[in-house]
Amino acid sequence: MKQNPDIKFLGRVLGDVIRTYAGDDVFRRIEYIRAASVDRHRGGDAGAIDLGLGALDLDETLSFVHSFMLFSMLANLAEDRQGVATEPGADIAQAIAKLESEGISRERALALAECALVTPVLTAHPTEVRRKSIIDHRNEIAALMKLRDAGRLETDGGDLLERAIQRQVALLWQTRPLRHERLYVSDEVETALAYFRESFLPVLPALYARWHRAFGARPPSFLRLGSWIGGDRDGNPNVTAETLEYALARASETVIESYLDQLHQLGADLSISSELASVTPELAALAEASGDAGKAREDEPYRRAIAGVYARLAANFVAVTGREPPRRARFAGEAYASADAFRRDLDVIQAALSADGDGGLGRGGAIGRLIRSVEVCGFHLATLDLRQNADVHERVVAELLKSAGVEADYLALDEAKRAALLRRELAGKRLLSFPDAVYGDETTSELAILCSTAAAHARYGAQCITNYVISKAASVSDMLEVYVLLKEVGLFHPGDAPACPIMAVPLFETIDDLERATAIIGAYFALPEFAAMTNARGHQEVMVGYSDSNKDGGYLTSVWSLHETSAALAPVFERACVALQLFHGRGGAVGRGGGSSFAAIRAQPSGTVNGRIRITEQGEMIAAKYGTRESAAANLEAMASATLLASLEPPALSVKDAKRFAAAMDAISATAFTAYRGLVYETAGFKDFFRQITPISEIADLKIGSRPASRTKSDRIEDLRAIPWVFSWAQARIMLPGWYGAGRGLSAFEDQKLLRDMAAAWPFLATTLANLEMVLAKSDMGIAAEYLRLVESKGGKAIFETIRGAWTETHDAVLAVTGQSRLLERQPALAESIQLRLPYIEPLNLLQVELIKRRRAGEDDPRIHEGIQLSINAIATALRNSG
Questions:
Q1: How many DSSP H helices and E strands does the chain contain?
Q2: d(Cα 506, Cα 543) in Å, to the nearest integer?
Q3: Is the pLDDT at 472 greater than 80, yes or no?
Q4: Which residues lie in coiled coils (predicted)?
Q5: What's the rounded Cα separation, in Å, for the pair 501 and 486?
Q6: Which helix (H) or strand (E) is 687 found in, with range?
Q7: What φ, ψ does residue 583 adopt, rounded to 5°?
Q8: What one-character DSSP code corresponds to residue 184?
C-alpha cells in the first residue's frame, strides 16, 4: 500500500513534536506501540493482542491517546487535500455536460434553477468532539500545506515553511483537546458563525460566478444557507427566546460586517473619475444623496455613492448591535429598511459600471460578488428554523384554549374534533392569549419565543425564519397547532386563503410515522383553506428523519421506508398541484443517514427532488465538509449538481423493474425489520447489555453539546436520542445501527440473481450497499469482543454471539450481492483510508476498555476519567463519520 506522502510528512513532524515536548522515553513507547500495531495489521495476525499497552502508566497513557488522536486528525487533513468530489457530474459544469449528452439542454437546467432551492442546514447536534481551537490549528496547517504544494519555502511573514508547520503541530500538542465546561447555545451559535464567516460567505459568490459561466447565463440564487442553532428547542430547555434573539442578532451582525468590509474595498477600488468616464443619472443621484461633500472626491462619483451606501449600512449595524462597526462611517446615514433596498443601490452602481462600454467593470467582479451575497444572505445570513416537539405544542394550545374559555380539555379530544376546533380558531381574528394572563412555564416560554420570532421578521426580514419543524408529527392537528400559535403573535393571517410567512413542516421519524405520512399530508391538502395557502406559496416541505427511523427499525428498513415514503408523497403533491420539498435529517454515521451526499441525492426516487431539497449538516461533518474553503466549495457544488442531475435525468429503472425491485425490497426490509426488532426491543436484557458493552454513560459526560442525551429521564432505548445510540456503538467498534438486520434480509431473500441485478442497476440499492460496506469495514468484532469484559449482566455473552453471527452473515451477504471478494474492493481509496487508521484505532479501543473497567470498578483517579474522554475523542476522530 502506497502511503500518502502528506501523511508521512505530517506524521514525521508530529513525532518530532512528541519527542521535543514529551521526551524520548515517551516517544519510544508510543512509537513501539504504533509500529507493533502496524506490523500486526500488515501481517494479518489475528492472534493474541499484545502491543505493550500494559507498560504505560496513566500519564503515558494520556500522552499516547493524545498522540494517536492528533495523528488521525492530520491523516484526515492529508486525505481531504486529495480532493472531495470525484464522482462524475459532481460539479455543475460536469452535470450540465452529462445532461446535454442525454439530450437535456442547459436552458432546461437553467429553467429548473429558477424555481430551485438547495440548502445545507447546520445543526448543533453533538457529535463533534473536537474543540474549535483544535480545528482552527488544523485549518492553519492545511493553509500552510497549500503553500508547500506551491513550492514555497517561506510563509508570507518570512518564517521557514516547514518550521511554521511544526509550530502549528506543536500548538496542537499543547492545546487542551477536551472541554472543561459544557457548551452553551451561544457557544454553538459562535461556532457555526465561524464556518459561515470563514467558508460560506467567501465561497458562495465564487461558486455562483463559476455557475454563471457553466449555465451561459446568470443563475438565480437557488443555493442558500440554513441553520437550526438557536431555534431547535426539541428536548433542549436551554434554547429560549433569549438564545433565539442572540442567534439572529449575531448572524445579522456577521453578514452586515462582511458587507461593510466589501464596500470599503469597493470604495478603494472604484477610483473612477467623471472627467474620464460618463456617469449615469442614477449614479449621480446616489452620489449626490450620499452627503459626501469632500473636495478630494468631487470628481469621483462612485466613491461618493459608496460612502453614502456605507453610512446607511453602518446605521443598520448600529441598529442590530448597539455599537459602531469596527470601521466607522465618515458621516451619518439613514439605515436601510430592508436588504432589498440595499441591493437596489448596489444595482445602481453595477448598472453605471456597465453603461460605459464592455470593459468588464460591471460584469461580475467585486460588485457582482457583493450583490450575489446580498441576494443569498440578505440581512439574516442564514434562514433559522424553529423546531419543537408536537407534544409541547398540544400542551400549550390546550392551556391557551382552557384559559380563554374555549375548550376545557383539548387533550381529551380525538383527532377529528381537535382539527375541527383548530380550524374554527384559525378562521377568525380572535386571539386566545391576553397580556395579563398567568400561564405555566412551558406556555410562557413558547409564547416568548414566538414573540421574538415576530419581532425578528420586522427587524431582519421574513427570510430570517421561514420554517417551523414539528418533531413527532403524527396528525393534521399537529400542523394546525403551530399555525394557532403563530396567529397569537400576528404571523398567521386568517381568510379564505390564509397567509403565513412561516411554514409548518411535519417531521416523520419512526417507521410507523413514515408509513402514515402520505395520509397525513393528503388530509392536510384536503382542507380548502390550507390547500389555498399552500398553493399560494407554491411548495410544502416535509422532513424525514434518518436517525430515529434507524433506531426504530434498523438500517435497511429505515432507508427503504424513507425511500418509499418519499416516492409515495410525490403523487399526493402532484394531485394538489404543489411542489414537494423534502428536508432530509441526515447525520454523519451511516446509522443516521451518513455517507456521500452526492450519491444519496442522486439515489432519491424519481420525481421527488425537482430542484428542491434541504439537508441537515451536523457534528463532525460540518468541519469535514466546510472546515476549509476548498472543501466547502467542493461539497456545496456536489450538493447542487446532484440536485440538478436527480431532478432532470430520466429514471434509472423502467416502470416494470421499479415495481419488481420494490416488491423485492419490501420482502427484504420486512425480514430485516423482524431481525432488528427481535434483538433490540424483544431480547431480554438487551438494554443492560447495551449500556454495559458501550461507553454510553461515559459519552454522557462529554461536554460536546448544550442539550441532554435523552429527551426524558427514562432509560428506555425508545427515549434515548439517536446520536448517543449511534455514537456509543461506534466507539465499541460494533456499529450495530449501521448494519444489523440487513444481513438477514439480504441472505434470506430467495432470488439472489434478482438481488444482484438490483444492485447493479438501481442507484438506491447500490448506495445502500456502499454505505453498508463502509460501516462493516470500520467495525471489528475482534475488538468488540474486548468490550465484553465490561458486561456483567446475565446473558451478555449470548447476545454478543448473536451480534457477531449477524455481522458475519451481513458481511457475506454484501459480498455475494456485489460480487466482490472483499469489502470496498471497488472503493480502493476508501479501503486504503480505513486500513491506514485501523492500527491506530485498535490500541485506543483496548486502552478505553481498560480505563472504563477501572472507572466502573470505583477507581477515582481523575486521569482515568480524562483518559476515557480522550479515547472517545481519538476514536471518533479516527473513524471520522461515527456520529
A1: 36, 9
A2: 6
A3: yes
A4: none
A5: 10
A6: helix 686-693
A7: -115, 115
A8: P
Measured in Å, how far apart are the chain's first and last C-alpha atoms?
28
Q: Which one-letter amino acid corresponds to residue 408?
A: A
Q: What are the beta bridge partners of residue 540?
A: 580
C-alpha distances (whole Å) from 478 to each of 394, 472, 520, 596 are: 7, 9, 10, 33
Task: Return the closest-CA partner of residue 504 out of 473, 482, 528, 524.
Answer: 482
Q: What is the pLDDT of residues 72-130, one digit of tens each?
A: 888 888 887 765 444 566 899 999 999 999 999 999 999 999 999 999 999 986 556 67
Q: Contact 132/623 with Cβ under 8 angstroms?
A: no
Sequence-ordered strand ranges (E) for 275-357: none
CA dihedral 746, 752, 753, 757 (to 10 degrees): 0
Q: Which residue spans within 672-743 are E strands per DSSP? A: none
Output the pLDDT for position 409: 98
326: Cβ contacts below 8 Å, ≥ 6 apart: 257
The CA-atom distances, in angstroms, between 344 and each of 201, 225, 350 are 20, 22, 10
CB 817 within 8 A of CB 759: yes
**Pairing state of beta strands 386-389 and 612-618?**
unpaired
Angstrom distances, CA of residue 746 to CA of 423, 669, 769, 800, 811: 47, 9, 10, 21, 10
Are 708 and 235 in contact by the 8 Å Cβ rule? The answer is: yes
Cβ(684)–Cβ(795) below 8 Å: yes
CATH entry 1.10.10.60 includes domain 243-377: no
The rounded Cα 12 to chain-centroid distance in angstroms is 33
Give the pLDDT confidence score for residue 359 in this predicted structure.
Answer: 61
Q: Say which residues have a Cβ less than 8 Å from residue 68's Cβ, sequence separation at least 6.
A: 34, 840, 843, 844, 874, 878
Take residue 654 and report the three cell numbers written for it. Answer: 423502467
State whether residue 651 is helix, strand or coil: coil
Q: What angle do CA 497, 501, 503 make, to 5 degrees?
A: 85
Tell me the three cell numbers of residue 383.
434562514
CA distance 388 to 480: 14
Helix (H) or strand (E) holding 544: strand 539-545
The tens digit of pLDDT for each residue in 559-576 reads: 999 999 999 999 999 999
Identify the H or E element spanning 618. strand 612-618
pLDDT of 358 = 59
Residues labelled catalytic: 125, 551
Question: What one-character-per-residue DSSP string does 408-443 give?
Answer: S-GGGS-HHHHHHHHHHHHHS---S--TT----HHH
Name the residue type at position 332: A
Chain length of the chain: 883
- CA gap 299, 310 in Å, rounded: 19
Rounded Cα gap, residues 128 and 192, in angstroms:
12
CA distance 331 to 318: 13
Neighbours of 751 (CB within 10 A): 12
In the chain, what are the domain boundaries?
243-377, 385-613, 655-879
Report the distance separating Cα 217 and Cα 34, nearest Å: 55
CA atoms of 277 and 382, how far apart (whole Å): 38
Q: Which residues contact 713 (CB under 8 A, 6 or more apart)?
A: none
Alpha helices for 582-654 (secondary structure H):
597-602, 620-626, 629-648
Segment 785-834, tens digit of pLDDT: 999 999 998 899 999 999 999 999 999 999 999 999 999 999 898 888 88
